[in-house]
Write a structure and sequence with these properties.
The protein is an alpha+beta fold. It contains 17 helices and ten strands. A four-stranded antiparallel sheet has the order 1-2-7-4, with helices on both faces. It has a two-stranded parallel sheet with strand order 3-10. The chain has a two-stranded antiparallel sheet with strand order 5-6. It folds into two domains: 2-164 and 174-250, no CATH class; 269-419, no CATH class. Strand 5 (227-228) and strand 6 (234-235) form a beta hairpin. The protein has helices at residues 2-38, 73-92, 109-117, 126-129, 137-140, 161-166, 182-200, 216-223, 269-273, 291-297, 307-310, 319-322, 349-353, 357-363, 373-387, 392-399, 407-419; strands at 97-101, 146-153, 172-173, 205-208, 227-228, 234-235, 243-250, 279-281, 284-285, 313-315.
Length: 423
C-alpha cells in the first residue's frame, strides 16, 4: 500500500513537472521569436525556430557591444556566422546541447572558499591548488571573454541500475564509467568544434573536459544548459543529469545565453538517498563522505565507519541521480563508446575479485576505471565482498587474497572476513 501511494505521488509530481516544462518551453519559444524580430545588433540576426531542436539546444541573445568596436563589421559578421552555425556544428560532433556564458563567476567564489576551508575536498589537493583561479576563467586562460559549454548524454543501454544495487552479489559501477573514458572522446570533439569556429573567426581558445581548475557546473548553468541540483550536479528538465560537460574558453565576444531558473522546489530525494549522508545540506557535498570520492579519489584506506554503507558500489555512485524525479526524462546516449564493456553492468563481485592485475589493465584499458589502478580496484571489491551475503564462494574469494602483496588490500580483506565471522 505504501509503495503504491509513493508511486502515485511520484506520478503526480512528474505530471506537474511535465506541464511546467511545457509552459516554460513555450515561453522560451516566444522570447526567441521576439529576440529574433528585434535582431542582435550590429546587423546580426538569427532565425528562431518555434520547435524544440531534436538533437541540440542553443539559445542566442544580444551581443555584448562593449566587446565590439564601432567599425568592427568583419568581426560582427564572423560572430553572426558562428551564432547561426554553432548549434549545427555541435550536433554534427555528437553534442546534445551547446550554450555560451560570460566569465563572471564572482558569485561562486565565497562558496568555493568556504568549502575548501572546511576541508570538504578531502585529499583532492588539486581543488585548492589554484585558489580562486578556478572561478576566474580569464586568469586561467588570459584573454578569455566567453565560455562555450557543451553537454553530451552518457546514460547507456545497460542492465538495470537499481537491480544491480539491490543484488549484493553483483558489482555496481557508476553508469558513466561502463564504457570508454569520456575525457579523450569529448576533448577531441571539442577541439574539432573550436577549429570549426576558427574557420569562421580566428580566435584564441582552449578546451577543457574535467581536466583543469574549471567550475564546469557553474559555467553550464550560467549558459542555460540546466540548473544546479541540490546534489550539486547540473540538471536539465529535458534530460535529467546523466550527461558530461565540456568547455571551450574563447576570446570571441559571442552572444551569451540566459540561465535557467532552478526547478528542484521542496524535493529532497537526493539528500535522503545518499548512502553515507555526503549531501550535508542542499547544494553542499562533503566529498570525504561521498562514495564516488571514497572509491575513486581516496588513495588510502576507506574509513571503517563508512564501509558498510558503500554496499556493492565498487566504482562511483549514482544514488542521488537515480532517485531524482527529473531523471525520468533521461535519454539513452547515442555514443557507441559509452556502451558497457566486458559485462561490467552485470558482473559479479567474486568474478571481478579474481582478476589478475594483467587482466584488470587489459579489460579497463581506455576506461575511466583504469586510472584508479589495480590496488584501489581490489580495495573497493574487498569492501563490497565484506558487505555481501555470507557464502562459501565469498569467503573463498577473500581468503584467496589474504596474503595480497598490497598492505592496503590485505587490511580491507581482513575487515571483510571479520564481517563474515572469519578471523
Amino acid at each position: 500500500m505504501a509503495e503504491r501511494a509513493k508511486h502515485a505521488a511520484d506520478q503526480r509530481r512528474l505530471a506537474g513537472a511535465e506541464v511546467a516544462a511545457e509552459v516554460n518551453h513555450q515561453a522560451r519559444v516566444q522570447r526567441r521569436r521576439q529576440r529574433g524580430a528585434r535582431g542582435l545588433g550590429v546587423g546580426l540576426g538569427v532565425e528562431m525556430r518555434g520547435e524544440r531542436p531534436a538533437a541540440i539546444i542553443c539559445r542566442v541573445k544580444n551581443v555584448d557591444h562593449r566587446n565590439l568596436s564601432a567599425d568592427a563589421t568583419p568581426a560582427a559578421n564572423s560572430v553572426r556566422a558562428i551564432a547561426e552555425r554553432l548549434e549545427k556544428w555541435a550536433a554534427e560532433l555528437g553534442f546534445d546541447a551547446v550554450a555560451v556564458s560570460d566569465i563572471d563567476l564572482s558569485a561562486a567564489e565565497a562558496g568555493l572558499a568556504a568549502w575548501l576551508a572546511e576541508g570538504a575536498h578531502g585529499e583532492m589537493d588539486y581543488m585548492a591548488r589554484h585558489g580562486m583561479k578556478r572561478a576566474r576563467p580569464a586568469e586561467l586562460v588570459p584573454g578569455t571573454l566567453r565560455v562555450i559549454s557543451v553537454r553530451m548524454n552518457y546514460w547507456p543501454q545497460a542492465a538495470d541500475a537499481r537491480a544491480a544495487l539491490d543484488d549484493p552479489a553483483r558489482a555496481y559501477v557508476s553508469r558513466y564509467a561502463l564504457g570508454r573514458d569520456y575525457h579523450k572522446l569529448m576533448r577531441d570533439r571539442l577541439q574539432k568544434l573550436a577549429e570549426r569556429i576558427a574557420g569562421a573567426a580566428p580566435h584564441g581558445y582552449r578546451v577543457f573536459v574535467d581536466s583543469a581548475p574549471v567550475l564546469e557546473v557553474e559555467l553550464a548553468t550560467r549558459a542555460g544548459l540546466g540548473w544546479r541540483g541540490k546534489h550539486t550536479l547540473a540538471l536539465s528538465r529535458s534530460v535529467g543529469s546523466f550527461f558530461f560537460l565540456g568547455e571551450i574558453f574563447t576570446d570571441l565576444p559571442l552572444p551569451t545565453d540566459e540561465p535557467e531558473a532552478p526547478h528542484c522546489g521542496s524535493c529532497r530525494a537526493c539528500l535522503d538517498a545518499c548512502p553515507t549522508g555526503a549531501i550535508v545540506a542542499p547544494y553542499r557535498v562533503d566529498a570525504r563522505r561521498c562514495i564516488s570520492y571514497l572509491t575513486i579519489e581516496l588513495k588510502g584506506p576507506i574509513p571503517e565507519p563508512l564501509r558498510p554503507a558503500i554496499g556493492n558500489r565498487i566504482y562511483g555512485c549514482d544514488d542521488c541521480q537515480l532517485v531524482c524525479p527529473w531523471n525520468r526524462f533521461a535519454k539513452l546516449t547515442a555514443e557507441p563508446d559509452f556502451a558497457p564493456r566486458h559485462g561490467l553492468d552485470r558482473a559479479g563481485l567474486v568474478e571481478l575479485f579474481a582478476w589478475t592485475e594483467a587482466e584488470f589493465l587489459a579489460r579497463t584499458a581506455g576506461s575511466a576505471i583504469h586510472r584508479i589502478g589495480f590496488e584501489r580496484w581490489s580495495r573497493n571489491l574487498a569492501v563490497a565482498l565484506g558487505n555481501a551475503h555470507t557464502s562459501p564462494e565469498v569467503v573463498a574469494a577473500l581468503r584467496a587474497r589474504v596474503d595480497d602483496p598490497s598492505e592496503l588490500v590485505r587490511e580491507h580483506v581482513a575487515w571483510a572476513l571479520r564481517r563474515h565471522g572469519e578471523d
